[in-house]
Amino acid sequence: MNSSVKRLPVFHLGLGKTGTTTLQRHLFPKHSEIFYLGKSRDHRQRKGCRSEGILEFLRPLLWETNEPMDIEKHRALWSEEVTGTDSDAGRKQIVGSWEGLGDINKKAHRAILERLASALGTYKVIYVLRNPLLRMPSLYLQELRSGYIQKNKPWSDRGFITIDDWFRPRLRRSIVLNYASNIRNAVNLLGNSNVGVFLYEELRKDPKKYYSDMCEFMQIDPQEGLKLAEHAHENFRLSTAQYHFLESGASVLNGDAPDLGSLKSRREQLLSLSGQGKPVKVELSTANQAIVSEQTREGHRWLAESLGLPLADYGYCF
To answer: Degrees (nearest 5) of the Cα angle 108, 169, 184?
Structure first.
């Protein structure tokens, strides 16, 4: 790509279970034209940030948006920690990726967009969407496997939870289904050309086009991006045997067998004992599927009409 072209900072904000790990492990940190802020498992700072200074800069912009912020001081911090001190940052595309921010409640997401604008001026955002009737089960299985449910009261203090019990508190807290409204706010603030919306279904259908289009949006070499990401795959799904083993072993996870050690080791032991096999398939109840459809229908129509996304081709609710 032409290094003389002015590149705007890019923030990938969502969503989870849309091929995000591949982006965060293979494309963003390894592309020679990207200066990657995080999230990365290789970065030692909180939130997977590249440095303590970058964490300090991003904290009130992305995660603590209710806290006061000195705009001028913050702009100076950006220069000190990124563009003014690192030659790579000055000539590369600056990219940050925190997928959990894409479907948080609308007020919090709007605050993120506005604070980024106040500190950086114009920037770009990337969202990757997936049919929510398929994304919700995938997100549930990931959290079930990792034990994330166990750590996050009041969702559950059990080692196993059904998908519908997992879904209800998320719905009450107004998360996971707000992405269309959040994208609409981004378009209103930044303009269509600075908001890139990509579909997980198109990644599955044609990864070459998907990664090339994303790299073009970021103004980086698509051929290099394709080599890095096309054949990478992360986060394999729980097998049917593993799922049923977790379900039947819930009492063990709850501490009825203290000789097994920590909760983490108990869970790992159950998963290793259950072996591999056919991926498990779970679905929301019919009632909860209807709720998802009703709450996303209007947003999907706006996304299709305003951004030209072929959502109907992939079964998104209309």
So the answer is: 35
Q: Are strands 34-38 and 93-97 parallel, antiparallel or unpaired?
A: parallel
Q: How many residues does the chain have?
A: 318
Question: What does the angle CA 274 – CA 277 – CA 279 come to, to the nearest 5 degrees?
Answer: 105
Q: What is the pTM of this model?
A: 0.88
What secondary structure does DSSP assign to 49-72, as a single string?
-SSHHHHHHHIIIII-TTS---HH
CA distance 91 to 224: 17
pLDDT in tens, 149-158: 555 544 444 5
Gap between the Cα atoms of 25 and 251, Å rounded: 35
CA terminus-to-terminus distance, the chain: 39
Show Cβ contacts of residue 232 under 8 Å, excluding neighbours closer than 6 positions.
22, 25, 26
Report the alpha-carbon distance of residue 58 to residue 54 in Å, rounded.
6
